[in-house]
Amino acid sequence: MAENEVVVSIELGDGSNHMRALAELKSKLENGETSPSSPSSKLKCTKVPERLRSEEKGGGDDHSCYAPKLISLGPYHHGEPHLAMGEKLKLNLAKAYIKKCEGLSVDEIYGSISNSISQLMGYYDAESSNKYRDDEFTVMMLVDGCALLYYILSVCLCYDHEHINIRYQDISALHRDALLLENQLPYKLLLDLMYMVVPKSANAFWTAMFKEFFDINDESIFQESMGMKSKETFVKKMMNCCSPARLLLPGSHYNNQSKSKPCDHLLDLFRRNLLGKECSSSYDSHTGEGNLERLLVRDVKEVMAFRNVKELKDAGIRIKRSPTRHLRDISFRSNGITACLRIPPITIDSSTKAMFLNLIAYEMSSDVPHDFISYLRFLDSLIDHADDVRELQSIGILQNNLGTHEEVAIFFNTVSANLESRFHAYREVRVKIGRHFQNHYKSKVKMWMTQCLDTYFGSPWAIIAWVGAFFALFLTVVQTYYSVFPHR
């Protein structure tokens, strides 16, 4: 009996442990303790992840790509000594913007912002926003928001810059600082301030402003905005951009904000404009959903070893420009022997690195999909050497304003290193490329035909020469025929 009692007590003890473990698991599941999201991912205006900062510190002065050079926007860099001149510039810009808010005084604008100050402070990291009293934070939001919007107006509408003391180099630095992750203002604040200038047509007007502002990304356009080069009047551009056909159609990018996730800030809006519509992001628009479901995991793994430009060319794949500049607009077509990969054009210059790093930091610090990182990884797969850069530049996909082809290749090989793209990003394009490679190298006939096409029809001049030779041969045959059988 004693032995039986011992056995029973052991079984009960073992069962109670299982029940206790199961109860703890249920409690964790109910309380959401298994959620992988971090507190910072819930913020709207996030900071650069420490992982990126530590990686960049080991690579030279790249960490300066995250810090403003002229002005601070928001609390993260407010009051830093090297930005003292920028504080004076912001006051001049804010003063000019307030003058355009017809019928509204500084007191009324301040009151409007202070009514939602708790919500605005919640956009930022608590450690940074709690350094300021509500009234101090309200003043910061008022000055920074008005200054940013007037800067956008002054660049896009070619205002006279002398009365606010903006130099040419200030315009360039302001544009860079406005798109830094740690220099963002809540989009809600910007919306409220926008409607104070043009309340009746704010959406159409500011859609045109932002579109023009985002297009200003190289030296020549800055020179145009400062009057150093002639340019088409902005009024004409705005009339084209603000036409009802472009703004009011269903799915209009800016006008359709309510149907998608609300915009966080200016960098988020810039990212959306850069990527384009989601319907063309990863899949071919001519492929049905049922076909996508048949793409198995093993199919994607087969093409994880990306191909560079030279390998694509050797397999009969030609690379051409996409019809748009949106980064999601990547497609692939194959006719069995040759194929065509379409990629949107992109410009690489001195400002590109800061822009890329801040977009990467935004995607890694928030809950948005890693679509921009996926694009960089895809482009990096095409570029291994300087020859790949030279080929992309020759077909108009890559405009190199940075330096040598080797420098651009190194840039793409390092900027997205150690980053993971979305598993399904450009999945169908990659699978189709992999299948084209498999079919190409399995058939000697296809390899021979590809070589012939590349050798004898690889350039327009070669095609013209073949057409000329064929025409000459045709005339020779006709002449011979009439010599043998003269016409009577």
Structural class: mainly alpha
Number of helices: 24
Task: List the secondary-structure elements in sequence, H or E.
Answer: HHHHHHHHHHHHHHHHHEEEEHHHEHHHH
Task: Name the helicity range.
Answer: 55-70%
Largest sheet: 3 strands, mixed
Q: What is the strand content?
A: under 5%
Low-confidence stretches: 5-12, 217-258, 280-297
| Principal-axis shape | globular
Number of separate strands: 5
Strand order of the largest sheet: 1-3-2
Radius of gyration: 30 Å
The mean pLDDT is 75
N-to-C terminal Cα separation, in Å? 130 Å
Could you please describe the fold and organization of this structure?
The chain has 488 residues and is mostly helical. 56% of the residues lie in helices and 4% in strands. It is built from 24 helices and five strands. It has helices at 2-31, 50-57, 84-100, 106-114, 117-121, 126-129, 134-156, 168-178, 187-194, 202-215, 219-225, 234-241, 244-247, 266-275, 289-293, 297-302, 309-314, 352-365, 371-382, 386-394, 405-415, 427-442, 444-456, 460-484, and strands at 317-321, 331-334, 339-343, 346-348, 398-400. The strands form two sheets. A three-stranded mixed beta sheet has the order 1-3-2. A hairpin with a 4-residue loop joins strand 2 (331-334) and strand 3 (339-343). The longest helix is centred in the N-terminal third of the chain and has 30 residues, at 2-31.
